[in-house]
């Protein structure tokens, strides 16, 4: 941490926002120029809204600059704790997975990159390593709490491997965290379909998570959350409508994995479903649409994910984005309020 400023954690958290915002805004223009010279651009879905066809060829993989800014900021501003390295490791690993996916799309000039099974395999591997390190190294308890209701012990079904001092595998908790982290990873990815939508909503969510981490006394996750929020702010300068660059799967998969990891380290696994409720709704809209269409050959939504449904209803892209930001802010506020109430009551 920055020497004499270590005694002022609030300042450190706000500094993380500013540093990543500035780094992202400084590095992004050069990266955009490089992508344009290299003809590296987004491949748009043929079955998407017709208004999106003009986005074909827009530079993508902007999430790479966001990751560089977050890594630089956390190493400069934060303390090299196991929590920080675990969060960085999972986020960067998911970002690299997304980078391979983005590169595959560009090379083959199609809107689909890696196969769904390949992406899921990589995501589950990252989530599994994350939860095992969280439990065995950091000491995260394999419990899940529904605020004001009950705390479930998911460590009742456990295997201890005779390696070193023993590696605990709480099977039920590992399964739960895998579903949470991989689910959030793909939910944020699905949300990244309009200019500024994913960056704006993740920014709001990360501000709430920084507040929760700070309130719970774990400074490094608070700094990390703040750094991600700042990167989203800086990225929005270039991603607002009409976008000069997209974050690609490099950014969306990394941000989703980071959100899931933060939920585990702050023990807000259930509350994260409220704080990130917009992402959950986007993912559910796709699942419901696919399931209903297979059963009836009819559609519930005009188009999935949910943001495209409202576009089809005649809302402008900017109206959908701003209103989704508002909804995300409301859900994040409710989630934070519930967390605050539980800490006061506790």
Automatic annotation (TrEMBL):
Its cofactor is Mg(2+). GO terms for cellular component: plasma membrane. Keywords: Cell cycle, Cell division, Cell membrane, Cell shape, Cell wall biogenesis/degradation, Magnesium, Membrane, Metal-binding, Peptidoglycan synthesis, Transferase, Transmembrane, Transmembrane helix. One of its GO terms (biological process) is cell wall organization. Mg(2+) binds at residues 189, 249. Belongs to the glycosyltransferase 4 family. MraY subfamily. This is Phospho-N-acetylmuramoyl-pentapeptide-transferase.
